[in-house]
Amino acid sequence: MNPFVYDIPVKVYFGRDQLHNLGGELAKFGQRILLTYGGGSIKRIGLYDRVIKELREGGFEVVELAGIEPNPRIESVREGVRLCKEHNIDAILAVGGGSTIDAAKFMAAGALVEHDPWEFFGANAKPIDNALPIVTILTLSATGSEMDSGGVISNLETSDKLGRLARPLLPKVSFLDPTLTYSVSKYQTACGAADILSHIIEVYFNTQQDLYMLDCMMEALMKTVVKYAPIAVREPENYEARANLMWASSWAINGFINGGKRKAWSCHPMEHELSAIYDITHGLGLAILTPHWMKYCLNEENVAKYVSFGVNVFGVDSTLPPMDIAHEAIARLERLLFEELGLQRRLSDVGIDDTHFAEMARKACRYGDIKGFVTLTPEDVERIYRMSL
Ligand code: NZQ
Ligand code: ZN
Questions:
Q1: By C-alpha distance, which of 127, 61, 65, 130 is closest to 90?
Q2: Same domain, 158 and 200
Q3: Which of 37, 162, 230, 335 could share a disulfide with 95, CB 3.0–4.6 Å?
Q4: Handedness of CA 360, 363, 368, 373 (dihedral sign)
Q5: DSSP letter string over 333-353?
Q6: Whether the predicted pLDDT of 255 surpasses 90
Q7: Are residues 36 and 91 in the same domain?
Q8: Whose CA is nearest to atom 25 of ligand 1?
Q9: How many angstroms separate the alpha carbon of residue 252 from the centre of ligand 2?
């Protein structure tokens, strides 16, 4: 176990009817607010009107930036930066899913520097020492962006989708009302669940000495997704299911379960290359790749991790031989993702062929081999893409 720092300073208002606190929270940061959101779902569910009412009552000066894309683009970030500078914005209010919140984070950082926000990404990334305060109202349980310090931005010109972590990007306050996710489609609910699961799997499958306590917490979080995601897909207005998924999404990636583990994530860098080139939904890409990555990495030395995953998360019979448990665990994961949640199973199902595999594999390893649960070279990554075809 490595030493680590525990410091998760995001204030969370969880549950129904908390929005009356919005004005009071924003007022701590100033009066000029940039309100940013996606393609219109917040208007369809009546949230936009509720937010505007709160902002009017609080006497805020509001500038709006609508149309943040799924897999948010650097152009939207640039526009947000421009608006922040032009209107001398005090804080950003992001209302939506991970894409809107991620874009807001880099607007917030970009507003305080002179250089282009794309320079926050890549091998020679500029530092992020400061950012405008960010407040979020989450409408989709998936990325955990509402409670983490990261974000991922696409650049279509260079076919890159790059992530960045920096503490100033942590939201100051996040409103988590599960009823706001009732309108999320079955498909996006399933993709969100796959993303939450992946955030935990990326940490759980680790060869470092583990904290038993954190392993148990991760198993509980995964069991929560396994139990409630199919219910949310079948019954979109089931509060218990939506609430459990929402809180699991935040705790899957807010830094707590990590407990100082230093191994790299594996499926996320592979998936970001799929989204970068094909603009597919992040959670779908993860759902397709993860079972193949698990099969590819399985060996006699690391089978114990698959055994605990199979037995403790999916209830696989612990008396079976370890390798049988491992294969059954992966089969149960596939059943969840592709049968119960109804996601597409293969890259070819979403129109992806092997044209860009070599380039994607090279870019997935742009910072060197992926030193995760099992170290992956570009050749390994390409093989996993091929298995997923
Ligand atoms: O744009 P609108 O109209 O709002 O519609 C969105 C969008 O089409 C819709 N939606 C959101 N809330 C809704 C709703 N539809 C109906 N009712 C609601 N209540 O859902 C669609 C997808 O939204 P998006 O924000 O793109 O989804 P998600 O939250 O999954 O975010 C995905 C992005 O986050 C990145 C991904 O790579 C991807 O770019 N990630 C961010 C992470 C982070 N910040 O830590 C980590 C993740 O691993 C991930 O990489
Ligand atoms: Zn993710």
A1: 61
A2: no
A3: 37
A4: negative
A5: HHIIIIIIS----SGGGGT--
A6: yes
A7: yes
A8: 97
A9: 10
Which ligand ends up closest to the CA of 253? 1
Could you give the C-alpha distances from 92 to 12, 37, 111, 127, 210, in angstroms and in order? 16, 11, 10, 20, 38
Element (H, E) at 188: helix 186-204
Same structural domain, 149 and 212: no
For residue 163, the ligand 1 atom closest to its alpha carbon is: 50
| Measured distance CA(53)–CA(159) in Å, rounded | 40
User: Residue 12 carries which side chain, given as an amino acid letter?
Assistant: V
Same domain, yes or no, for 141 and 203? Answer: no
> In terms of domains, do 313 and 199 share one?
yes
C-beta separation of 135 from 93 below 8 A: yes
* Domains identified in the chain, total number: 2
What's the confidence (pLDDT) of residue 208? 79
Asked if residue 6 is part of any domain, the answer here is no
Q: Is the pLDDT of residue 211 over 90?
A: no
- Residue where one domain finishes, among candidates 136, 158, 180: 180
- Give the residue-averaged pLDDT of 18-31: 98
- 225 and 300 inside one domain: yes
CB under 5 Å of ion ligand 2: residues? 195
What is the reported pLDDT for 287?
98
Mean pLDDT of 12-33: 97
Atom 38 (ligand 1) nearest CA: 71
Looking at all shown ligands, the one closest to residue 181's CA atom is 1
Q: What is the position in ligand 1's atom list of the atom closest to the CA of 199? A: 48
Q: 370 and 245, same structural domain?
A: yes
Q: What is the mean pLDDT of residues 268-279?
A: 96
Q: What is the residue with the minimal CA distance to atom 40 of ligand 1?
A: 143
Ligand 1 atom closest to residue 153's alpha carbon, by position in its atom list: 39
Last residue of a domain, one of 162, 180, 198: 180
